[in-house]
Amino acid sequence: MADTEKLDVVGMLGPLRRYARSLTRNDARAEDLVHDALVRAYERPDARRNAGNLRTWLFSIVHNLFIDDWRRTGAEARRAEAHAALAVDTAVDDPESRLRLKQILDLFMALPDVQRAALHLVTVEEMSYQEAADSLGIPVGTLMSRLSRARAAIRGLEAGDASPEIRRAALRVIGGKDD
Amino acid sequence: MTDAVSENDLNAYVDRQLDPVRRLAIEDFLARNPQDAARVMADMRSRVVLRLALGEAPGRPSRKMVDAAGRLETGMFWERMVSRFRKVAAIAFFIGIGWFAHDEASPLHISGSEAAPIPPAFIEDALQAHRTEKIRANMASQSHEQIYDREDIFRSTKIEMPPLPPAWRVTDVQVFPSHQGASVEASVQAGALGRVSLFAAHVDTNMNVPPKLTQSGAETTFYWQKGTLLFAITGDKAGRPLRRAAHGLFETMR
């Protein structure tokens, strides 16, 4: 880890917690997830020394913990679980916009976990594609593919899909496999 | 525009991860392709919505979580400082607790720095060391080809470093703010002694104490005091040459 890099773990709590919320779709579970991730990070000094970037590293621990442990052991709540208490209502006054907002958020929450994670990192955390891919432990190409699927799902029937020209290009550029 | 616009381009446009030239090219493309423009608009809108809805962290973090974060942060600081202070950790320990108070506990022996309990003052110093950029920026000698500019170091730290034997070559000088003012660590290629570290810091007491020995694992350290300055020289090669060097430095400062 670079010597000059800021070691501000406490300052990273906000971003980690909102990421965990997007993953778990539940505030209380998000808190537990971040706490467990911090404990795991503390218990692994070896991994720490090899970690390149503090932010990417912490995000990857939260993600791995969620995917590997939480989900596998069934600790993660059922998909149907309500994602209560999101700060949607406060942001917008006009009811129609609020509805629209709610719809988009619902679509986001209904995305497969890996797509939700990718979209959150790039959108909310404003990570570069490389950073987001590192946090998820996947190649950039796979990240881009997940991002496209996530956006297409949220777009839904709304704004039509890509023109044939884009489709061709997309096939050529992305083309490869995805999970 | 000759380059084909790809799905990735449109994503990167929405996420603002394109360089300005490519960005212009995409905008040019969108101006001619309303269907794609509408789609990009929709993606941008959902991007804003998600940022609005998910950008705020939920409430305040629990006490438990803040504690866990603080422990991790402190642990990481400590690890970083250990590698930085490895050669002088034992000495820094003395500074943290006032080493003269422990003079009677001779022979002075400090176990490996990892095993040693960390005095709070040292932790704070270690944290401070993280914020050295300002001081270092003011020191002309802080380039990568480090020059042991004693006047320069004195101006920045009020620490008068000893003149070194002509055969010695200083490879690095680091300044750390600490409890009682700045401290200085110089890495030196000291001829037959190999690589040694020379460490200097302010202390409360004012006296002259000739070099004493302390052993920390494979490393040997001689430390002495001159006025209100504490010095330590640490090397991997134990024994007499280092002692002679320490006494030599001590004598030159009289």
Question: Which features would summarize this protein structure in a list?
Answer:
heterodimer; A: 179 residues; mainly alpha; Rna Polymerase Sigma Factor, Chain: A; Arc Repressor Mutant, subunit A; 10 helices; globular; disordered C terminus; B: 254 residues; alpha+beta; Phosphorylase Kinase, domain 1; 2 domains; 6-stranded antiparallel β-sheet; 20% strand
Note down, in words, how this protein is organized:
The complex is a heterodimer of chains A (179) and B (254). Chain A has helices spanning 13-24, 27-43, 45-50, 54-71, 88-91, 95-109, 113-123, 129-136, 140-155, 164-173. Mean pLDDT of chain A is 77; it is low at 75-82 and 167-179. In chain A, 65% of the residues lie in helices and 0% in strands. Chain A is mainly alpha-helical. Chain A has two domains: 1-83, Rna Polymerase Sigma Factor, Chain: A (Orthogonal Bundle), CATH 1.10.1740; 86-179, Winged helix-like DNA-binding domain superfamily/Winged helix DNA-binding domain (Arc Repressor Mutant, subunit A, Orthogonal Bundle), CATH 1.10.10.10. The relative contact order of chain A is 0.11. Chain B has two domains: 7-54, no CATH class; 63-252, 2-Layer Sandwich (Phosphorylase Kinase, domain 1). Chain B is built from nine helices and six strands. In chain B, strands 1-2-3-6-5-4 form a six-stranded antiparallel sheet, sandwiched between helices. In chain B, strand 5 (219-226) and strand 6 (229-235) form a beta hairpin. Chains A and B meet through helix 1, helix 2, helix 3, helix 6 and helix 7 of A and helix 1, helix 3 and helix 4 of B.
List the helices and strands and how they pair.
The complex is a heterodimer of chains A (179) and B (254).
Chain A: H1 13-24, H2 27-43, H3 45-50, H4 54-71, H5 88-91, H6 95-109, H7 113-123, H8 129-136, H9 140-155, H10 164-173
Helix pairs in contact in A: 1-2, 1-4, 2-4, 4-8, 7-8, 7-9, 8-9
Chain B: H1 7-14, H2 20-32, H3 34-54, H4 63-85, H5 89-97, H6 120-129, H7 133-137, H8 150-157, E1 169-178, E2 181-189, E3 195-202, E4 209-216, E5 219-226, E6 229-235, H9 240-252
Antiparallel strand pairs in B: 1-2, 2-3, 3-6, 4-5, 5-6
Helix pairs in contact in B: 1-3, 4-6
